[in-house]
Design brief:
4-stranded parallel beta sheet, single chain, 34% helix, globular
Length: 87
């Protein structure tokens, strides 16, 4: 993955499947905590925009990603905010 911005939906897979932001990848907090984020080939300064339903899981996920060394993290709150502010 080599992009300037990656949109990450941190909701559970069943929530993601019911609808998500175009181009968003699904990485729930449990997956991040297990260390298998799928972001191994992403530069640490890539802008990562995380969202969930209310912003709580995305805030928690940001802390996990920070511990993994990522430095450009944005809490997109929810799909509506991401669509409005990043597209």
């Amino acid at each position: 993955m080599n992009q300037s911005r990656i949109i990450i939906d941190v909701r559970e897979p069943f929530e993601y499947e019911s609808g998500h932001v175009d181009g968003a990848i699904n990485i729930p907090p449990g997956t991040l905590m297990s260390g298998s984020s799928g972001l191994e080939n992403v530069k640490k300064d890539t802008e990562l925009v995380l969202y969930c339903k209310t912003g709580s899981r995305s805030a928690a996920s940001m802390q996990i990603l920070k511990q993994m060394g990522f430095t450009n993290l944005v809490n997109g709150i929810n799909a509506g905010h991401v669509n409005k502010n990043f597209f």
